[in-house]
Amino acid sequence: MGKHAECCDEQCVHTELVNKVLTELPDEEVLYDLAELFKVFGDSTRVRILFALFESELCVCDLSEALDMTQSAISHQLQILRTNKLVKGRREGKQMYYSLADEHVVTIIAQGLNHILE
Questions:
Q1: Pairing of strands 95-100, 87-92
Q2: Which long-range contacts link 56-59 to residues 24+ away (Cβ below 8 Å)?
Q3: Nearest 5°: CA angle at 91, between 86 and 95?
Q4: 3-state secondary structure at position 67
Q5: Can you tell me the distance from the alpha carbon of 86 to that of 43, in angstroms, rounded to the nearest whole number?
Q6: Sign of dihedral through CA atoms 104, 108, 113, 118?
Q7: pLDDT block averages, 10 residues each, the chain of length 118
Q8: What pLDDT is recorded for position 2?
C-alpha cells in the first residue's frame, strides 16, 4: 500500500487520447451527482440495509430486527436512501415496506460485491 504512483520519465502529451477523454467526459454537474451517489454507499449501515433489501422487501420492523438496530436509526438511513432514489416504499395498511428502487441498484450492489470478492 505504501507504493507511490509512478510518473512519466519525460513530458509527452498524447493529444489524440486526451481529446478523446475530454469528448467523453460527462459534465461537471453529472460527475458531482455521481460522486454524491457513491458517498451514500460510503456508510456501512446503509450498505447493510441495501444488502438486506437485495434479499427481500422488508418493513422497518423487519430491518430493525435483522440488523439489530433501532427503528429510528433504520428510518433515518432509509430517508437518505429514498432521497437518493436507491430504495422505494410501499404502504400496506399500517406497515411501510421498503425495496430496492430498481434493477440499477441491484446491479450496483452485485457488481460491488463481485469486485471485492475477486
A1: antiparallel
A2: 57/90, 57/97, 57/98, 57/99, 58/97, 58/98, 58/99, 59/95, 59/96, 59/97, 59/98
A3: 105
A4: helix
A5: 14
A6: positive
A7: 73 90 93 92 94 94 96 96 96 94 92 92
A8: 56
State the Cα–Cα distance between residues 55 and 81, nearest whole angstrom: 16
Length of the chain in residues, anyone?
118
CB 96 within 8 A of CB 59: yes
pTM above 0.90, yes or no: no
Give me the helices (H) in the chain, please: 15-24, 28-40, 44-55, 60-67, 71-83, 103-117
Q: What DSSP state is assigned to residue 9?
A: S
